[in-house]
Every structure is written in structure tokens, then in C-alpha cells.
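It would be a great kindness if you could assist me with a short task in structural biology. The matter concerns a single protein, recorded as an amino acid sequence and a row of C-alpha cells. The record follows directly beneath this note:
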Amino acid sequence: MRAYLHRWVETAGAQLLVVDPAEDGGALAEAMAGHGVHVTWVGTTLDGLVEFGRMDPHAVVVATEAPGAEEFVGVIRQHGTPYVIAGTGDADHPGVDGADAVGSLMLAGASAVALRPYTPQHLWELITHAPRSVADHARLEVGPIVLDATAYSVRVDGERIGDLPLKEFELLRALMLSSPGVVTDDELREALWGADGRRPGGNTIAMHVTRLRSRLGGIADIRRIRGRGYSLTVG
């Protein structure tokens, strides 16, 4: 794996991989970002294996309808220790066939079940009680700044500041995770918009950085490192 991808796994914090042929349009990724969880959604188990090797995710949701789901769970359990969640049916009509498929995934190594449509709160409850809890990544502290992804809050010297828009919250989190190091533009794009989402240009990132600087006042220095990215430091 290339060095910058190793670094991105650290920068992104908690990672959730969803293997499900039914796309949700990015809604889950947007909602889980508020908990400090980065979601990668793929439609096939083959793509799932590729992303599993790239990400080393904390948890994996595998839809029972995904072709080769049972074999996929068996493989990833042999090559890591992810918390596997079987995704099935819907809340109103889970179905007998779905129950049988869930049973097969549980025998293959799944530890929990989530009904579609996946709800952020339910998934958060599941993965925070996993042996490799994502809650460890929820709270960050750099100097006087404390970010709590669980409470969606930022405090400076113990005082809570006004709620940040989601993109600025994720921007601050990515910068804090690497502080005082540099986070590249590509890493910030993935943190804010995901690997498979739209990839805005540098001007969009610069706009969010400017707004974040204004909200933080003189508490932190967010610097543009020409040709590399951004870094956050505190005095």
C-alpha cells in the first residue's frame, strides 16, 4: 500500500466499509461524518475486498443480497479483525429468506444485524460496542481545542463554540488528527466528500478553510503549505 494511503487511514480515523448493491446516494456517509466515522460504500464483494485491503476498516456492513457475501465475510475474517454486521431486508419486511441469509453470514463470522435502510444511530450503537470501538476516535484534543464527534461539539478552553457546519467540522477534525503535520488537498477531499463522491477543486477547500479560520479566531493557525496542503498549529 502506498505511504499516503497508510497516512490517510490514520487521518480519517474510524472507518466503516459498506458492501451493498443498493446505493443510498451518500446519505449514510453524510450522517456518519457527524460521528467522526468515514464511510466507504461499494456495490460488490470484489470491490469490497479491494477497499478492505486499502482501509483496514473498524467495521464492515455486508448486505445479504451481495453476491458472494458469505465467502467475503469468511475471507475478511481470515485477514483481519473487523466487526462484521449483516445488512438485510427492511424494518417492515425483513422476510424469511433474509433471516436464512443472515444466519449464514452469522455462521461465517458476522456479529450483528442491521436492517435497511441503515440508520446512523443504530450503526453507531453497534460499532461503538464492538471490540475495536470507533469511540476511541471520537474525541480529539490539540492545545485548547477539544473536538468531540459523538457530541458534535468543539470547545476552546472549556467553552463550547457555536456548532460548525458539517464540512467545517470534518475539516477541523482532519487537521487536528494530523496536527502539526500537513494534510494534502486529496486527503481533505476524501475526508469531506468521500472517495467516491464529487471532487471539488482547491478553491472550494480554500473557502471552507477561510470560514473555519474565522470561526476559530486567533486560537489556531491554519496555514496553506504551497504545493502540499494545510496544517493546523496552536500557540
